[in-house]
Design brief:
Low-confidence stretches: none
Distance between the termini: 47 Å
CATH class: Mainly Alpha
Number of helices: 18
Strand content: under 5%
Bound molecules: phenylalanine
Helix content: over 70%
Structural class: mainly alpha
Order of helices and strands: HHHHHHHHHHHHHHHEEHHH
Strand order of the largest sheet: 1-2
CATH architecture: Orthogonal Bundle
Amino acid sequence: MSGFDFSGRDSFGSRLGVIAAAAGSAVGLGNIWRFPYVLGENGGGAFLIIYLLIIFAIGIPVMMSELVIGRRSQRNPVGAFRTLAPGKPWFLVGMMGIVAAFMILAFYTAVAGWTLEYIYQTLIGGFNGKNSAELATMFESFRSESLRPALWFSIFLVATAGIVLGGVRKGIEKSTKILMPLLLILLIVLCIKSLTLPGAGKGVEFLFKPDFSKITGTTVLMALGQAFFSLSIGMGTLITYGSYIPRDNNLAATAVQVSMVDLIIAIFAGIAIFPAVFAFGISPESGESLTFIVLPGIFQQITGGMAFAFAFFFLLAIAALTSTISVLEVIVAYFSEQLNISRRKAIIIATASMFVLGISASLSWGLMRDVKLFNLNIFDLFNFTTANILLPLGGLLIVAFLAWFLPGGDTLDELSNGGTLKLKYYRLFRFLIKFIAPVAIALVFLNGLGLVKF
Ligand code: PHE
């Protein structure tokens, strides 16, 4: 099989390791913190159906395309396009991915820092006896402080850098293989607990019973953004991870399995949260504070609640960590390969610059609360722009690259592992990346951003 060969590059050691690392990237705060609140704000069951359609028709093909580009080129997102399309402007797609990686890591690690604060609060009994109004005040006053959010953010960033420093196989693969199963077990326990609460049925109904009258252009844009964010696609995470995947790995199977794990965990998170939300008469539209205000309230009202609270926030921190390492890895691979410096140096530069950006994001309700663009603070700006603009736009260009630029033989070669795998789905895949995915992304964009109205 041809393709580029840069031997001596670090790589994943096993099939399971590939799945653990890629699913570790995909499964994160996006599934457990973001999915429920975005779904709650955008119509519940109807949102879920659109979300499913997007995963299958757009998400999986984009993920496959990224894996193809990564493994073919054996490079970071910028180097990948430079290798596969020398002298052409395609590398700008990779650059856009690096910008997105910085922005995502900044606000994402800030939320990851909140989970550490909440683990700490469960340990010192900080929620005890507080009603929901008091819990809301507690969350808001924590967020608007200037020291603590920045401190927790820094701790989380250093932990992330520590794992990435361990390397692809010994750091990323090894840690995710332990953390991912642990996360699944904790989540299942929480689902069972939530489903056995009196009145849980309403939450299940909210999650699974579609009310199509609630669908608007914005709903679809939010579902698209959520799908890209949750699958970690559109910014080159899977180009980077793809470049570490062994030659005999079935890329299409990997993409489908990772997407299914991601989907299932998001649905489990919904099952863990909404029955409890309804059982305690709380609004599903509580926004990004849903996890941090609503859940501690619920935990207090159930027996053994603080143990569950601890388990939950611990789980959230783990899920976040296996994702932050994948985002940092993108930046590190880019710096080390494109600037030709050691990984260690690249990690130091990346982490140091992240401090500045991330602390600004984590102080969006504190010291930096007056810094606003389009009426959004730094955190909201990064959250909205990456998920709803940069990632879908990146995804559009990535599929376009495969559909219209990369020789078809190269794609076929990567997906079939040099002709050893039979590809029954190949024509469907090409149809999806040539027509369905780009047209759908473009339409959702124009409509969701209010540029075209249907
Ligand atoms: N997919 C991760 C999550 O759902 C977030 C992420 C986005 C990670 C983009 C990498 C790249 O939490």
